[in-house]
Amino acid sequence: MRDAVIVAAVRTPLGKRNGGLADVHPADLSAQVLTGLAERSAIDPALVDDVIWGCVGQIGDQTLDIARTAVLSAGWPESVPGVTVDRQCGSSQQSVHFAAAGLVAGHYDVVVAGGVESMSRVPMGSSFADGNPIGPAFAVRYGPEAPNQGIGAELIAERWGLSRAQLDEFSLESHEKAARAQDEGRFDDQIIPVTTPSGSVVTRDEGVRRGTTPERMAGLTPAFHPDGVVTAGNSSQISDGSAALLMTTSERASELGLRPLARVHTAVVAGADPIIMLTAPIPATQKALARSGLAIDEIGAFEVNEAFAPVPLAWLADTGADPKSLNVHGGAIALGHPLGGSGARLMTTLVHHMRDAGIRYGLQTMCEGGGQANTTIIELL
Pick from 309, 250, 246, 318: which is nearest to 280 by CA? Predict the structure, then answer.
């Protein structure tokens, strides 16, 4: 029976908004990570059947199927196609799911899954342009306003009884874990340095705040409601970045002399209330565990995207997962959240952590616009 394995996973450093990567066109940012993936794996790009690329803001610099533009910008053969995927924040995790399904079905033998977002060059919400994504039928069911993720985070905090102090403490720990991971070189094997148009080279994630204190966190103003608990400090950072995974089957990997890192064990998607929007990782995780036959305590590592601190905290409360195994090298609050590239970034971080720590099973999930979530369980090989 055919399977889907990950043989290499790389990412760029994550740049702060208007930071070190802001001058790099997202197609070129993608191209550099594709080049790095080919070099790290020693794969001939001509063997790649498709590049499946997540991107949320498909407008301006990121329009016209940026996956294909990235392939050509990387100097890969013109025979390699590319397709761009949008499942909001989970776009590149969905790319991994599509790649895995294609491999198991026999549609692909070698495929790249990943994504990109340059939020400096294509600001969040740019794709709204002058249009209105809320049509009459949706408005009748849910109201005329587009659901707001920040308000959704506030609703989660209220429903799960999460205090401002709890959110800030979780966020502070995210920065501390990310700083420790940087200092210990935990990201070194996964990061592809990025050369900017000026010739400078970006090698480290820019969002990690060292020396942040509970007092500084407590002094930040609520971002979405005057009396709310969600602030810029306990929310993910607006970022630039890209990540990519090389995937194939066990049989084809053996033929090519490639050593798989992990197998895609289970992949599911789920939907939930689109107004609170950010709770779908809970039913998606439950669905993945049921389908996999695994219990939560058999999973040794979790990556739950830190879109807002209430999301992973509510997820922990409902799943009963071990907090010590969650986002052990920090999450999007510290590292950043380049929307379309985040799913592949989390997967890259997860598979490297599992390899380094000898963890058999890892689970990744992330909330997505419209009240959706992907969950992926991977198995170390």
Answer: 318
Question: Strand, helix or coil at 216?
Answer: helix
E strands, 4-131, in order: 5-11, 15-16, 50-54, 82-85, 110-118
240 membership: H or E segment, kind and range: strand 239-248
- Which stretch of DSSP H or E encloses residue 167? helix 164-183
At 267 the three-state DSSP class reads: strand
Q: What are the residues whose beta carbons fall under 8 Å from the beta carbon of 58, sequence distance 6 or more?
A: 66, 84, 86, 127
Amino acid in position 344: A
Higher per-residue confidence, 131 vs 285? 285
Q: Residue with structure tokens 């992949």?
A: 267
Q: What is the rounded distance in angstroms from the CA atom of residue 86 to the CA atom of residue 91?
A: 5
Exactly one of 97, 175, 337, 353 is catalytic; which is it? 337
| 13, two tokens | 């450093």
Bridge partners of 269, per DSSP, are 374
Q: How deeply is 219 buried, as exposed, middle or buried, from its count of CB atoms within 10 A (0-12, 13-18, 19+)?
A: exposed
Among this protein's residues, is 89 annotated catalytic? yes
Task: Give pLDDT tens digits for 332-379.
Answer: 999 999 999 999 999 999 999 999 999 999 999 999 999 999 999 999
Q: Indicate which residue of 89, 175, 329, 353 is catalytic.
A: 89
Q: Which residue is associated with the tokens 């989660």?
A: 156
Average pLDDT, the chain: 97
Catalytic status, residue 55: no
Three-state DSSP string of 343-381: HHHHHHHHHHHHHHHCCCEEEEEEEECCCEEEEEEEEEC
pLDDT at residue 130 is higher than 80: no
Which of 175, 329, 352, 367 is catalytic? The answer is 367
In angstroms, the CA 100 to CA 6 distance is 9
Residue carrying the six token digits 């609170």? 276
pLDDT band at 195 (very low <50, low <70, confident <90, very high): very high
